[in-house]
Amino acid sequence: MQKTGNRLLAALAVSLMASIALPQTGLAETLRVGINAADITTMDPTRATATADVALVSWMFNGLVRFQPGSADPSKIEPDLAESWSSSADGLAWTFKLKKDVKFHGDYGILTAEDVVFSLTRAKDPKTSSFSSDFAAVKSIEAVDPMTVRITLNEPVPGFLGLIANYHGGNIISKKAAEKLGADFKSHPIGTGPFMFDRAITQQTVHLKAFPEYFRGAPKISDIQFDLIPSDSSRELAFRSGELDLIYGKREQRWVDQAKAWDDAVVDIFAPGEYRTIFLNMAHPPLEKIKVREAIAHAINVDQIVQFVGAGVGPRGCSVVPTGYLGEDCSWAYKYDPALSSKLLEEAGFAKGLQLSAVVSSSSSQQPIMEVIQAQLAEVGIDMQMKVVDHPTYQEQVRKDLSDVVFYGAARYPVADSYLSQFYHSDAAIGKPTAVTNFAHCDAADAEISAARKAVSDEERLKLWSAAQKKIHEQVCGVPLFSLMQVWVRSKAVDYGYELKGSLNLAPPITEQTTLKR
């Protein structure tokens, strides 16, 4: 508690310094945000994967196109750094005309096609990007002239505009800044967004300030104070005492119901849900046995888990593809049947039960749910030994293939290919140079997933995605659970400037239109 108190005092000191500097900007307010993170890992947009990192990145960078603020709907993508674009009839060549006189933060000049080529080439390279697999179909990225970029694909990409939107690898950086700063770019990012990096105090706070030369107009708030407060109760206390204006909430129905009764508070629940799945590592005995995996699938009571989480914040899933994604097919599901589970274990040679290991994050959105699953598995004789670690250690260890059972949740661009490719294609299996998040070492539907990328019609693509989901279901690579929606709480003084229904960056977009009226 002493450490949290020190963190809050330091954050207040930063806020005081910011208020002293206000006359230089002519703006009136600091938006004070609390996030559930102990520290920031990186602010390099091609490496930012943690929720806190992605939130910061989303306020500092732009893509060629963008999701409308408050929307995660790919049908409503609109121009961002590009003023217009066109594509060839076969969908393989895309040409983007850039907006003129878009300025980078600091003294890094005007955006040109060279910056776009540099940024997307960097996003495609696994040495510099965590999202390189998203760009596997990109053949070339070239500057046609100083304000025109052409991207050529090897094959059509479903939802291609999502790749170059203001999300993950689509964010555009300053080539000059990246080359000058090198490894320091991750802690001194340079983008074109409404807010720019100012300063950071390790494990305490990150401070952004308004970019007065933002191409859509100067922001209406002066700066953002981003406090790193991993404790749910400490964030709640800081919000309710008026020290914070916006906090990352606890994604549990009981907590949400309580927060709705707080004075001067608005609870925002929005998409996309981070799709929670239990992945079964087939590279670890005895999980190579199909009957063992089937036994686990029939021992997990998803309805009970959803009741525990709360259907309002954790609606039930059905397919291996997340709820609401284009191509989701719920024709198949594992039925909760503990008697069948016990029978399958006996047939697999484990009549007396078996023991499995699971590396588990201490996060409030993971450990309690894994404890429920642990109790469910114990009822059929499966002893799941949980190694509980902090969230960064969990992320590291599951990517080293150290867990038999992996509980993982993620949001991706909402088309089936993004989830199938990253979680169920063998190219993405942990341990491979092309590894992403295939914790199960699933390989049942490689052919269908690959063929769907080359499909010439939506009808053909949907059929292939459906076939892939069926094969993955039959191989029992994992057990789909629920979508954990985003939960943030704001003061009534905060007006986003739009209606918040969704945000692929998992945090409310803070734009030039956001206002704060204390």
Automatic annotation (TrEMBL):
UniProt-listed Pfam families: SBP_bac_5
Solute-binding protein family domain: residues covered: 76-427
Taxonomic superkingdom: Bacteria
Subcellular location: Periplasm
InterPro entries according to UniProt: Peptide/Ni-bd, SBP_5, SBP_5_CS, SBP_5_dom
Signal peptide: 1-23
Keywords: Signal, Transport
Family: Belongs to the bacterial solute-binding protein 5 family.
This protein's name: ABC transporter substrate-binding protein
Upper classification of the organism: Bacteria, Pseudomonadati, Pseudomonadota, Alphaproteobacteria, Hyphomicrobiales
